[in-house]
Amino acid sequence: SCHDLSDGGLLCGLVESAIAGDLGVRLSFSEIKNDKWGLLDFCFNEAPGRFVVSLDKKFHEEFIRCVSGISKLYLGNVCPEKKFQVLWAEEKYEEEINSLRVSFLN
């Protein structure tokens, strides 16, 4: 799947994708600037040209070849547990996908 990040940024796009696929997401922001404002900008920046892609591991090498020369960052994976999990520094944030769905739709 591929989702643009122009409406709400990375976290909103990932939440929308997780709700639509009824799957969980496990993210690690270990490579992101280790301060709160750097993380907030990364998560909610709506700059044009940003998108998030999820794909089966068997397509990984082909995908990397197709996007050579484009800046990319591995953030995590899709998981069968219906939870949205974010690891950053020493902190862990977790929310049930169904809870996010209720908030998103209301």
Question: How would you describe this structure in keywords?
Answer:
25% strand; alpha+beta; 6 strands; four-stranded mixed β-sheet; globular
Q: What is the helix tally?
A: 4
Q: Report the strand count.
A: 6
- Contiguous runs where pLDDT drops below 50 for at least 5 residues: none
| Strand order across the largest sheet | 4-2-5-6
Helix content: 25-40%
> Structural class of the helices, strands and pairings?
alpha+beta
Strand proportion: 25-35%
Q: What overall geometry do the principal axes of the alpha carbons give?
A: globular
Main sheet attributes: strand count, strand direction, barrel closure? 4 strands, mixed
Distance between the termini: 25 Å
Q: What is the average of the pLDDT values?
A: 90
SSE pattern: EHEHEHEEEH
Radius of gyration: 14 Å
Task: Give a written overview of the molecule.
- There is one protein chain.
- A 4-stranded mixed sheet has the order 4-2-5-6. A two-stranded antiparallel ribbon has the order 1-3.
- The longest helix is centred in the first third of the chain and has 13 residues, at 9-21.
- The model has no long low-confidence stretch (mean pLDDT 90).
- Helix 1 packs across helix 4 (97-105).
- It is an alpha+beta fold and 106 residues long.
- It contains 4 helices and 6 strands; from the N terminus they run βαβαβαβββα.
- The radius of gyration is 14 Å and the shape is globular.
- The protein has helices at residues 9-21, 36-44, 60-66, 97-105, and strands spanning 2-4, 24-28, 51-53, 76-79, 83-88, 91-96.
